């Protein structure tokens, strides 16, 4: 297994922008040990192999043999950079596969929304590429932070409009969703008359109109009341698609996400599975505090 494993470890580690020291710290081994694995001089024991697969978010077979990930690739970001008055994103690389629930974390101003907007094509990167291995028109759902609702039409009109554009118009389904999202009483109200939380619920309803392979949601629960927040996380949990969610809702990340990305200093500073964090008896909030403070 030597060479295939050594090669795969190096490849996955660099793709995910982890240093040998990062891996060593997560596994409680020395950096030299990781270096020896990558050079093919030694091999990790089974426990470390299992932990490595979790950290690198692949299955064991993929890690050991380099065989392709059975989860299909949905999205690849390569060398994405963006500056406004100062650099915001610096050479961001990322792959997203099916069945991944990804929490995108970072301090205020870290560049999370910028990254999401680049992925969904609202702004162009200065450098780098975004490649979908799915048809974004059919299989990508987005709920950006800024409301994209039309203020002077009614809730029902907006829902019908999006349903028609997406060719998923179904009167019964719309009525069910209005009930589920507690928006029946507002269905004939102009969107500009809705509260902030109601607008978020409507955006969420719209993002649920059609099945997708990948959903991208930027702070979906901001401005929602507690019942709606609860409802949102259950809804997310019931969906089978991959999701990338920007959220500061740390109470929920432990329960609902499989992978955590930490954006810091313009880079994906950490990219780890939730399980690997829990395996070290940390909550995501504790992990975030430690990692976001590290220099
Ligand atoms: N259109 C723009 N023009 C100029 N600067 C911008 C623009 N959009 C974002 N920025 C700057 O880029 C940086 C990253 O902003 P971004 O909104 O992506 O951060 P964020 O991580 O989503 O923050 P938050 O958690 O506060 O929503 C900030 O310094 C912001 O001021």
From TrEMBL:
SUPFAM superfamilies: lambda repressor-like DNA-binding domains, P-loop containing nucleoside triphosphate hydrolases. It holds the Pfam family ABC_tran. InterPro entries: AAA+_ATPase (IPR003593), ABC_transporter-like_ATP-bd (IPR003439), ABC_transporter-like_CS (IPR017871), ABC_transporter_ATP-binding (IPR050763), Cro/C1-type_HTH (IPR001387), Lambda_DNA-bd_dom_sf (IPR010982), P-loop_NTPase (IPR027417). This is ABC transporter ATPase. Coiled coil: none annotated. SMART domains: AAA, HTH_XRE. Residues 9-63 form the HTH cro/C1-type domain. Transmembrane segments: none annotated. Residues 58-290 form the ABC transporter domain. It comes from Limosilactobacillus ingluviei. Keywords: ATP-binding, Nucleotide-binding, Transport. GO terms for molecular function: ATP binding; ATP hydrolysis activity; DNA binding.
């Amino acid at each position: 297994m030597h060479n295939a494993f050594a090669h795969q470890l190096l490849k996955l580690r660099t793709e995910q922008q982890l240093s040998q020291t990062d891996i060593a710290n997560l596994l409680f081994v020395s950096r030299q040990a990781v270096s020896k694995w990558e050079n093919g001089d030694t091999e990790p024991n089974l426990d470390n192999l299992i932990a490595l697969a979790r950290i690198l978010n692949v299955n064991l077979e993929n890690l050991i043999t380099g065989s392709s990930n059975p989860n299909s690739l949905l999205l690849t970001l390569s060398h994405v950079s963006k500056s406004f008055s100062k650099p915001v994103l610096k050479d961001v690389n990322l792959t997203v596969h099916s069945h991944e629930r990804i929490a995108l974390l970072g301090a205020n101003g870290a560049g999370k929304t910028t990254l999401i907007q680049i992925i969904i094509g609202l702004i162009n990167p200065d450098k780098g590429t975004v490649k979908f291995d799915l048809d974004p028109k059919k299989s990508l759902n987005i709920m950006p932070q800024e409301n994209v609702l039309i203020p002077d039409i009614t809730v029902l009109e907006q829902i019908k409009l999006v349903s028609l554009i997406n060719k998923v118009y179904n009167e019964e389904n719309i009525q069910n969703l209005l009930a589920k999202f507690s928006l029946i009483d507002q269905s004939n109200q102009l969107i500009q008359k809705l509260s902030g939380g109601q607008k978020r619920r409507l955006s969420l309803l719209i993002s649920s109109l059609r099945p997708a392979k990948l959903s991208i949601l930027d702070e979906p629960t901001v401005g929602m009341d507690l019942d709606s927040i609860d409802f949102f996380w259950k809804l997310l949990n019931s969906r089978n698609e991959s999701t990338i969610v920007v959220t500061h809702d740390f109470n929920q990340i432990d329960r609902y996400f499989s992978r955590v990305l930490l954006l810091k200093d313009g880079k994906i500073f950490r990219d780890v599975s939730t399980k690997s964090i829990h395996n070290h008896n940390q909550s995501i909030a504790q992990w975030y505090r430690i990692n976001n403070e590290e220099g």
